[in-house]
Amino acid sequence: xxxxxxxxxxxxxxxxxxxxxxxxxxxxxxxxxxxxxxxxxxxxxxxxxxxxxxxxxxxxxxxxxxxxxxxxxxxxxxxxxxxxxxxxxxxxxxxxxxxxxxxxxxxxxxxxxxxxxxxxxxxxxxxxxxxxxxxxxxxxxxxxxxxxxxxxxxxxxxxxxxxxxxxxxxx
Length: 171
Hints:
Keywords: Membrane, Transmembrane, Transmembrane helix
Strand content: 15-25%
Mean pLDDT: 86
InterPro entries: STM3941-like
Transmembrane segments: 16-34, 40-59
Order of helices and strands: EHHEEEEEHHEH
Oligomer: single chain
Low-confidence stretches: none
Structural class: alpha+beta
Number of helices: 5
Shape: elongated
């Protein structure tokens, strides 16, 4: 079985591109207006702003065109890149089950031994796991609401199937 990469929608990057394109358009308009009126007061700032926003527009276009993995599902586990507090690589060996946390638009991960696994994490991620536990949520959450071309239920079904396949071979 090959790895499955679930990509993230680039809505934020597209918004940044559209914003920078609008500013670039306004800067060019200001530069042209200053050029036609032969006004250095309008033309110079408009020209400088057009160059700056043009470069920013190109950078934002490149960011919007990049594919960013949200979650990578391998045969051995999950590589989570869904948030700043994501857990990184999580082996199917450490997972007891998955559940859907619809209020967070996420898939909950319940490890076999919570305490041992939480101690393996960095202090910031440990605190996030403890906070989730105190709010009676699953200890770890995969935030998949921003997944491209897949719904929460589709990803849940895929993860559950991979976990069952892993257990049928190794348990």
